[in-house]
Every structure is written in C-alpha cells, then in structure tokens.
Design brief:
By secondary structure, the protein is of the alpha+beta class. It has helices spanning 34-41, 64-73, 75-83, 121-125; strands spanning 5-7, 16-18, 88-93, 96-102, 113-114. The chain folds into 2 domains: 5-56, no CATH class; 64-125, no CATH class. The protein has 4 helices and 5 strands, in the order ββαααβββα.
C-alpha cells in the first residue's frame, strides 16, 4: 500500500501532511537504520558513482573553479576584459575570488553574467 500524501499550497507551507489512516510503520528512512547510515557516511565521494562506467563520471565543465582556471588561461578573453573594462568585472562566486563576469552594454551592473572561456563553450553545450 502506498501512503497518500497531501501537499500544502506553496504559499502557505512547503511541508507534506500524511493521511492519518496510514500507519507510521509504512514509512522508512535510511537514517533510521544505523548500520546503513554508517555505511553511506564512510564512502568517499568518488565511490558514490561505484556502479557507473568510468567514462560517465566526468568533471562538470561549469564547476566555478574550472571556469576560473580556464578564464585565466584564455588570452583572448583576458585581452577583451582589458580592452573593455566597462563591460567586464571580477566577482567572488562562492569561495572563488576574481571570477571574470560580463555586463552587456546598456544593462545595469548588477545584471552580470559569468564570462565563459572559449574552451568551455562546446563542453557546456554537450
């Protein structure tokens, strides 16, 4: 038997309410099984992909550290940033400082976008 859940409207509350006629024993959480929880807690991050083929576990090209590294290595992007200082700015994103961002001419400065280096265009699309 699958328990019936009622969701409150997003405006009033984001919690789920369980029908009263469904016993609590119908629900299970991995956190309730201490042995299972300890097993998952001890796994290194790379082992979370244990059942995936190695060629499917690739780095995300949009990782902010990766973007910053590729920005710094992209000479054309760096030259454009120096040539058009009114269109480019450096921002801190998360814990990464000096990420190059672009503001379209005529847009307010708070409408910036991360400047994607040419090397990351194709991997991002893929």
């Amino acid at each position: 038997m699958i328990p019936r859940l009622h969701q409150h409207s997003p405006i009033s509350n984001r919690t789920l309410e369980i029908d009263e006629d469904v016993p609590l024993e119908s629900f299970f959480s991995l956190a309730d099984d201490r042995e299972m929880l300890e097993c998952f807690a001890c796994l290194p991050t790379e082992e979370c992909y244990l059942n995936l083929p190695d060629d499917l576990v690739i780095d995300n090209p949009l990782d902010i550290e990766n973007i910053k590294e590729k920005q710094d290595a992209d000479n054309a992007l760096q030259q454009n940033a120096a040539k058009f200082p009114d269109r480019f700015m450096r921002r801190q994103i998360g814990t990464i400082d000096e990420v190059l961002c672009y503001v379209k001419p005529g847009d307010p400065p708070n409408n910036w976008k991360i400047a994607l280096p040419k090397e990351l265009l194709q991997p991002t699309i893929q």
